[in-house]
Amino acid sequence: MNEQPKGEGQPRRRVRADAQRSIDTLLAAAAEVFASSGVDAPVREITARAGVGAGTLYRHFPQRADLIAAVFRREVDACADAAASLAAEHEPVDALAGWLRRFTGFIATKRGLSAALHSGDPAYDSLPAYFDERFVPVLGGLLDTAARTGRIRADIDPKDLLRAVANVTLPAQDDDGHTERVLALLVDGLRYGASRAS
Amino acid sequence: MNEQPKGEGQPRRRVRADAQRSIDTLLAAAAEVFASSGVDAPVREITARAGVGAGTLYRHFPQRADLIAAVFRREVDACADAAASLAAEHEPVDALAGWLRRFTGFIATKRGLSAALHSGDPAYDSLPAYFDERFVPVLGGLLDTAARTGRIRADIDPKDLLRAVANVTLPAQDDDGHTERVLALLVDGLRYGASRAS
DNA sequence: TGCGAAGCGGAACGGTGTTCCGTAACATCT
DNA sequence: AGATGTTACGGAACACCGTTCCGCTTCGCA
Predict the structure, then answer these.
(1) pLDDT tens, residue by residue, A113-155
(2) Which of A58, A140, B54, B97 is buried most deeply by CB count within 10 Å?
(3) Residue A185 is nearest to which of B117, B170, B189, comparing CB atoms?
(4) Alpha-helix residue ranges (DSSP H) falling in B109-191
(5) CA B33, CA B48: separation in Å to the nearest integer?
(6) Maximum separation of any 2 CA atoms in chain B, in Å
(7) DSSP assignment letter at B46
(8) Which domains, ranges and CATH numbers included, belong to chain A?
(9) Which helix (H) or strand (E) holds B69?
(10) Which tens digits make up the pLDDT trace of B102-140?
(11) Is the C-beta atom of B118 closer than 7 angstroms to strand D?
(12) In Å, what is the separation between the CA of B22 and the C1' of D2?
């Protein structure tokens, strides 16, 4: 549950108790603030909610981006882990569609983050990699299992589908079922040509 | 070619000559700066290039967002107008695919703008409407014509497809053909079920 | 319990978007 | 053309934000 940012080689120094407390408080406060005010919320709003000074934040997260990244990773993990139970409880194609929907929900809370990702800030460099690292195997597994039923084509790169769904979902502002319909269109695209190729 | 921002009811007052000069210079400078440094470029960079003071900019574009919106509209028009010649020179389905590709190129230059659009700034409120107002009829026409050949399904809402393509294209950072492939997937989705319905 | 190191708060810094206002340029009427 | 009221101009000043700095406190170990 705890977290030590910037874990270079090994964490050679023990984390002092008050420092760990600050880190936890900051991550919790940041998650709340990001959820309610978006990732562009002023840093002072986070430090105020956490009841710490600005210096404390920057000691543990040298760049504002590092804090965002830390919060992000936690939520990526939660979404990726959801795939296992879906696969256990549903038919392959349903599990695939279901997880895509779950993934859609995850992405929907990330408004404003895509902008940050493409800002060129090197602090975000590791995020897309982590995103792929966790999600590509998950979606790849669902896709393979579904393809083996023959009801879905087998020539889809998980990474492509992942990005497509994410990109379609992220900017959906006044979503009156738009995301649902496009997701359905993509799944139809998957079904098209299910008969050819292996 | 000229432009008078904020045209409320009627433009009841003539625009003074020096003011029109400032507006034109600012729009030109802004277009260049946005293209080279993105929409997040400092205002002072634009005023410097235009050779005007900050007060002049804010007199004509009360919010930074108003300037962005004005530049944006010009380029929307250019892209929408491209559809006519495509429709005249290609088969319906090719014209459709061709314009989607052209549209893709337009969107690709708008990185960072999507972030602005979803920032909640009321100054951008009219942009999506203008975007739809210009593009939906254009894509709708291409879609109808293509559907009448029977090689494309007829139950697609132009607005859905428009947003889907835009959303897929906008965040494409390291595009190694990703956009192309997803676009193809969407067009396959259009072909799927072309036989059923009218 | 004493002491060096790590952590803490918050004032201060540099840079940004935006406002303000004295001055200059324009359009109109005589 | 000259006078005059209105509109626009430039750039210094303001408010806010991310980030840095540093004197003081707290922690962990012997």
Answers:
(1) 766 776 667 777 778 889 999 999 999 999 999 989 888 888 8
(2) B97
(3) B189
(4) 113-117, 126-147, 158-169, 178-191
(5) 11
(6) 61
(7) H
(8) 17-62 (1.10.10), 66-191 (1.10.357.10)
(9) helix B64-89
(10) 898 888 777 667 667 766 666 677 788 889 999 999 999
(11) no
(12) 28
